[in-house]
Amino acid sequence: MMNIEDYILDHIDEEGSLLATLSRDAHLKLLYPRMIAGHLQGRLLKMLCRMMRPKRVLEIGTYTGYATICIAEGLDDDALVYTVEKNDEMQPFTLPYIEQSPHRSKIRLFWGDVEELFPTFDESFDMVYIDAAKHDYCRYYDLVFPRLESGAVILADNTLWSGKVVEEHEVRSDKQTRGISDFNEKIKNDDRIEKVIVPVRDGLTIIRKK
Predict the structure, then answer these.
(1) Which residues lie below 8 Å from residue 125, measured CB to CB, with a gap of 6+?
(2) Cβ of 109: how many Cβ atoms within 10 Å?
(3) Rounded to the nearest 10 degrees, what angle do helices 66-74 and 38-52 cross at?
(4) Are strands 204-209 and 153-157 parallel, antiparallel or unpaired?
(5) CA 67/CA 106 separation, integer angstroms
(6) How far apart are the first and last CA of the chain?
(7) Would you place residue 1 in the very low, low, confident or very high pLDDT band (cuts 50, 70, 90)?
(8) How far apart are CA 138 and CA 136, in angstroms?
């Protein structure tokens, strides 16, 4: 019998051969393959970009480039995604997939710390996708927020963190869980924004600056 996740994947747009190969290689070669956006979330990211039509997107946390490629797929031809990855050991895995993407001309890939790189970007971003170190989500939010215009959107991934955010022991004892919990409380109490948590995969928070 088909489970609900398989049913969903069977009834949405296909991810395509490049992303399917990327996902398969990630599960074969990487220690944490579950960290990739995956088929469902990738199609959601593409759809959100199609609907919102951002001209400049900032992605914090490239990892394999799966989400990066999905975002680029949804962008207009004159739009760009700036993606920043701190772990340069991912280069041998990530770069070939970025280079194979038919949307590679819309991707600007940077290796390093986003807190150092972001001030050097002479761009106005109207969408930000956060999917990096969970204990730094509050810092990433504070970093980008002042540079966003009214109507800009922030997408924060993993904000349900496998349900650990409702487990008091995990929030107290685990640095990553505490980081996500602190971020969720910060967003909850920020009256400068509108927000909703979508329970897709590990939780995706959609934030709109008023």
Answers:
(1) 54, 56, 57, 58, 82, 144, 147, 148, 152
(2) 19
(3) 30
(4) antiparallel
(5) 13
(6) 45
(7) confident
(8) 6
- Residue 193 parent element (H or E): strand 193-198
The answer to whether the CB of 71 falls within 8 A of the CB of 46 is: yes
Within the chain, where are the H helices?
4-10, 17-29, 38-52, 66-74, 91-100, 114-117, 137-144, 168-173, 175-188
Question: How far is it between the farthest Cα atoms of the chain?
Answer: 52
| Pair of tokens at residue 71 | 């975002």
Confidence band for 15, pLDDT divided at 50, 70 and 90: very high
54-75 pLDDT per residue, tens: 999 999 999 999 999 999 999 9
115, 139 Cβ separation under 8 angstroms: yes
d(CA 121, CA 123): 5
Question: What residue has token string 């959100």?
Answer: 48
Phi, psi of 75 (to 5 degrees): -85, 150
Provide the CA 66 distance to its chain's centre, in angstroms: 10
CA 204 to chain centroid, in Å, comes to 9
Contact predicate 48/155, CB 8 Å: yes
Which helix (H) or strand (E) segment is 110 a member of? strand 107-111
Looking up tokens 């955010």, which residue turns up? Answer: 165
The tally of CA atoms less than 13 A away on the side-chain side of residue 135 is 7
Q: DSSP assignment, residue 40? A: H
Amino acid letter, residue 47:
M
